[in-house]
Amino acid sequence: MTTQSAAAMPAFKSATGGPALTASLLVTLIAAATIAGAWFFQLVLEIVPCPLCLEQRYAYYLAIPVGVLTVLAARSGAPRPLLLAGLAILALATLANAGLGGYHAGVEWGFWKGPTDCSGPVVNLGSATDLLSRLDTVKVVRCDEVQWRFLGLSLAGYNVLISLLMAGIAAWGFFATAKRA
Fold first, then answer.
1. Using alpha carbons only, what angle is made at residue 143 by residues 139 and 146, rounded to the nearest 5 degrees?
2. Can you give the residue ranges of every domain in the chain?
3. pLDDT class for 58, splitting at 50, 70, 90?
4. Of the candidates 3, 7, 28, 8, which has an alpha carbon nearest to the alpha carbon of residue 173?
5. Which of these, 33, 49, 66, 75, could form a disulfide with 53 (CB 3.0-4.6 Å)?
6. Three-state secondary structure of the chain
7. Closest CA to 84 of 180, 177, 15
8. What's the angle, vertex CA 96, arms to CA 65 and CA 46, rounded to 5?
9. For 154, phi and psi rounded to 5 degrees?
10. Which of 48-52, 122-126, 143-147 has the lowest mean pLDDT?
11. At how many degrees (to 10) do helices 155-179 and 51-75 cross?
């Protein structure tokens, strides 16, 4: 696209830096710090994640590369629609993750039942000969039992707060970038 056509179509005008860069950089840094913290809890403190905990990490695994790509796009003066797409993906993924974290926290507090694979009774124990050998190697991590709390919140509760913060930052970046002339 030439400079003349970019001037004639303000939506495709490049947006170097600005709120898109700030928002995507903040979301990327928060996501990276959060997933590093999750790994620290798992690998160093030996707090094994339940299946819902692992599912909540997917949004971070998406947010980090999308955030990095959006940062690079903003720094290189990419067209506004590209920046808006990156910020929209970040906002939607982190907002959905806040919903998943809220669901998980509700399971932990006993507000509703969780998935049958990580809460409720154990149904299938397999054969009797395999049972004894598996008891030594398998640790069942239940989604409805909190393994760690700080100030009354579990890790799922903190995930809700962190995800809402990232969604808010990404939404701010989206709307501020959309308004820029």
1. 90
2. 19-113+142-179
3. very high
4. 28
5. 49
6. CCHHHHHHCHHHCECCCHHHHHHHHHHHHHHHHHHHHHHHHHHCCCCCCCHHHHHHHHHHHHHHHHHHHHHHHHHCCCEHHHHHHHHHHHHHHHHHHHHHHHHHHHHHHCCCCCCCCCCCCCCCCCCHHHHHHHHHHCCCCCCCCCCCEECCEEHHHHHHHHHHHHHHHHHHHHHHHHHCC
7. 177
8. 70
9. -85, 180
10. 122-126
11. 20
Q: What's the confidence (pLDDT) of residue 5?
A: 45
Is the pLDDT at 178 greater than 80, yes or no? yes
Burial class (CB in 10 A: 0-12, 13-18, 19+), 95: middle
Residue type, 10: P
Which residue type occupies 30? I
The Cα 166–Cα 119 span in angstroms is 29
Q: Which residue has the tokens 């926290």?
A: 105
Cα-trace Rg, the chain: 21
* Cβ neighbours around 38 below 10 Å, total: 19
Instruction: Name the token pair of 83.
Output: 């920046």
Say which residue the tokens 């009354």 belong to. 152
